[in-house]
Specification:
Three copies of one chain form a homotrimer. The first copy, chain A, is of the alpha/beta class. In chain A, about 50% of the residues lie in helices and about 15% in strands. The first copy, chain A, has twelve helices and 13 strands. In chain A, the strands form three sheets. Chain A has an eight-stranded mixed beta sheet with strand order 1-2-3-4-6-8-10-13, with helices on both faces. In chain A, β2 and β3 form a beta hairpin. The longest helix of chain A has 20 residues. Chain A is globular and about 55 Å long. Chains A and C meet through α6 and α10 of A and α7 of C.
């Protein structure tokens, strides 16, 4: 990966895609944003938070998250992420995505607490809709989606990984993954729960969600939260190996099958989307919850100092 | 546990709580039934079938079933049990319950066959409603519920354990747990099945219910019917250790999460409760089923002699 | 088994049962089709594709599939199969069925592609209804059904095995089982998926269906797609041993329990049966899918030559 980046340095910074309309984005794409390297059949683009490298030979794009320090899922990050996935979805040459982190030790630390602390209900609602959108895009993608989990992946980071078709995690017991919301005094919504149930079953989900369990890599493999472990430096190449098996399957049959499996879960959110936003906003803006978040953030700060 | 009981002997026998109105019970509580020991912050009460020891320091109550010879779930036992759980549920200081047996070798032998054999339809209906009530109270409890399964736990005893949040079983292959109803020629109702499916999944439930499987402790652990094994004399202390992890989670977040997981299963019984009673009564009062029960009871008697 | 067949040679060929009306069949049964051997209490019948041997002592019928070269599920085969199962279902003496193959190395190769390639929509519809019927009869059977999977069992063959109550597979890593439809560019319908989910859970099904996974025998055991492995020559005797445990359970309790587990899945097909046929016909008659089938068949021919 490091080599790849050296060979094909990103072309230009995209600015805040979050604030681009779809038309803007389409134009930018025809322009300098996604220059192609015909010789190598590789295209790369970099935005504020993501690098997208498309290999036209394989039809696989590597999406690398780079939002220091810990790839927190802020409103801007999520908007950019959803636009990038949609872009790839519409790209006929793109059949698969490998999602990974460009930061050390962390895949994604999950939802950005700053988007929920001391913010207006309107802002919280906009943020939550962006979280939903990220999941809808990823869980419902027609593309093959492989998570190369090369670091810790709590809460929203775990959701992101679970929304992919296949998960490979760095074989390092220091890295952990899980929906640990209850530890912060908050609650994973029903579609987080549904996604986890579809991954590890009812009972393991009941335990994991109530206790806010963060599973280290070997445990995550044991309970099926990830599908495979790979040496830390080989997570991305293991993802490339894994995706080749998926690429061997005719797309239309795979896509119909994937939709058959996931559509009921997706439909459940779609038919309760506004209600889910309202629930989130009224919960997160409660004084007691705001205090929990404050305590949590102060603890985080103390750890750093 | 033995030490605990010596230090804080039960104060007075409560008589048949089943026949106490809630008002009676509230009064009795203010009276001598639940004396507190301020120094140690421990309260204890004993009724006909149960000992309840509350530790105000931890917020954990130990509920010990003591209905010789095998903690059969009779109508009176179930009524008393439900009242005790409700009492603890309403006690703001109580955050968790450890449910265990005070009898050797058995957690609970399950539903008392004498309540179904040769009884009027009205009695059977009252009995079945009490079975439902026990499950509703336990499966839907806001408290942390840990089953310290220190002996065999067939049929209704297994249901009781499965309704808790976490199960620790004595590591003795002579002890077994499972829904063995078909062996008696009877059928576990849909909410027994739902509870088992939520614990060990569809396929394992299909096998277990059809064959009336009783799993010994190691097998029960292997298929996930219990979560942990402990040496026979350390089941209760293992339960105390386990519950401390649950107590570390903010109650409101854990409770909402638990409800999100279990509410659909609970609602299914609530919306079919009378129908389920009717089904049970018309099934159990059939001549053929009454004969099955008779044969079974005679076999039990022969074993004893 | 070989001995059994020598001792009790099949009596007469039944011709194409598929074209017999039920009345014809009833008459044929009273005639020479199902002669009994009172001394041994064994009855045997052979039709074009199946041998049915009933042991009145145990109440177990062994149904042996013999449609060379690979027990493809053609329209005629399926029709005959469903009639045979229905016959046994109506036979009060028959409590259980062991389903196995009389051909080497294969249990069943699955749906006969010739019934879907270059055929009229009407024919495809008739064929698909027969596939549904086979599954409905087997998955919903009141009898104990044990699959003695003594060879490979892809696609429809896997469905057949999964529709039984218990699966024993020959312990030979060369034999594989799974729903590999996507490899052919086609899609397993929702009730194939439901049956697999009821067997191995959501996540394993999602992976298996999308990748068209064929699991070798040890892997099939590991993920729960089969329940037991037996040495290749002992699969049938292992099935006899296994079924004795099921026979020990009172039929009525086992049947009600089985129905409680499987009815929702069966009802789902029953209430969408015509729609499912329409889906299949419009999908399979597409030019692109017909071409996929052609390519697949040519590959099969090349392998043979």
């Amino acid at each position: 990966m490091a080599t790849l980046l050296k060979l094909f340095p990103t072309c230009t910074r995209a600015g805040r895609l979050a604030h681009l309309s779809r038309k803007d984005w389409a134009q930018s794409r025809r322009g300098t944003l996604l220059p192609c390297f015909p010789a190598s059949q590789r295209c790369a683009s970099t935005t504020s938070y993501l690098t997208v490298e498309m290999d036209d030979n394989t039809g696989v794009a590597v999406v690398t998250m780079k939002s220091p320090p810990v790839n927190s899922l802020s409103l801007d990050f999520l908007t950019e992420f959803s636009i990038s996935i949609e872009k790839l979805e519409m790209d006929r040459k793109c059949r698969g995505v490998i999602l990974t982190s460009g930061l050390p030790k962390v895949f994604s630390a999950g939802l950005d607490i700053m988007e929920m602390y001391g913010k207006s209900p309107e802002h919280c609602a906009e943020f939550w809709r962006a979280v939903q959108e990220m999941w809808l895009k990823l869980y419902g993608s027609n593309m093959i989606t492989i998570a190369a989990v090369n670091g810790s992946s709590p809460a929203g980071g775990c959701l992101m990984a679970m929304a992919c078709d296949y998960r490979i995690m760095a074989d390092n017991p220091k890295y952990s993954i899980g929906l640990n919301e209850t530890l912060l005094g908050i609650v994973a919504p029903f579609w987080f729960k549904d996604t986890m149930m579809n991954t590890i079953g009812f009972r393991a989900t009941e335990l994991a969600l109530q206790l806010g369990l963060l599973h280290n890599a070997p445990n995550a493999l044991r309970i099926g939260l990830v599908d495979e472990l790979a040496p830390e430096k080989e997570v991305l190449s293991a993802a490339s190996t894994a995706i080749s098996k998926w690429l061997a399957i005719p797309d239309h049959a795979r896509q119909i099958t994937k939709s058959m499996m996931r559509k009921p879960t997706i439909d459940r959110l779609l038919s309760h989307r506004d209600q889910d936003i309202n629930n989130f906003v009224s919960f997160i803006t409660k004084d007691s919850i705001q205090k929990s978040l404050q305590v949590y953030m102060e603890r985080l700060k103390q750890r750093k100092t």
